[in-house]
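Chapter review. Work through the record for MBL fold metallo-hydrolase before attempting the end-of-chapter questions.
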Amino acid sequence: MQVHKFTFNAFQENTYIVADEANNCVIIDPGCYTAEERRELFDFIEKNALQPLAVLNTHAHIDHILGNAAVIEKYAIPFYMHQEDLTTLRAVAGYAHLYGFEGYIPSPEPTSYIEDGQILSFGDIHFTVIFGPGHAPGHVAFYSPEENFVINGDILFRGSFGRTDLPGGDFETLRNTLLNIMFKLPEETVVYSGHGPETTIGFEKKNNSIYQF
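Structure tokens for MBL fold metallo-hydrolase:
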């Protein structure tokens, strides 16, 4: 599998396209808000002759779902998310304008809900769902043990971790997710985060600021 990263919107959110050798792909956390951002994503898909099969959300904070509606409408594809983040998803329409996103088009409701331990398969793209709440109540990560990477949204950042002061956040829950779930993955696992650069589980076990609390 190939992982392609795009950084969108005022929050500098990382959107990912994961593709297999047959050019099937999934789009994870489409944060593309402006017409230019959407064009960048769509042009990449067209240029590389990719076939989108699904939209996946790690969680439903505004910066990770700004492009949901546009992507789902353009490609007529299903949308997967954990049910515990449905309230988070629905709330965005009520506050998007406060962040300057006056033109926000509300995300469709999920086509399917996903659960911890579930195996998702799209062509030759396979993920194990990891339920990792704390930053958001229905937060998940998409783990590929065969390819040694995880797309983990805002659970874990290089040297840091997701904030817990937003509605539905809880520090102790996130701390448990980090220490007892994420840090149990193999140390060579590459972590693709919702903001900032990539890291590895091994680096974070030695350097993450969670140990200061």
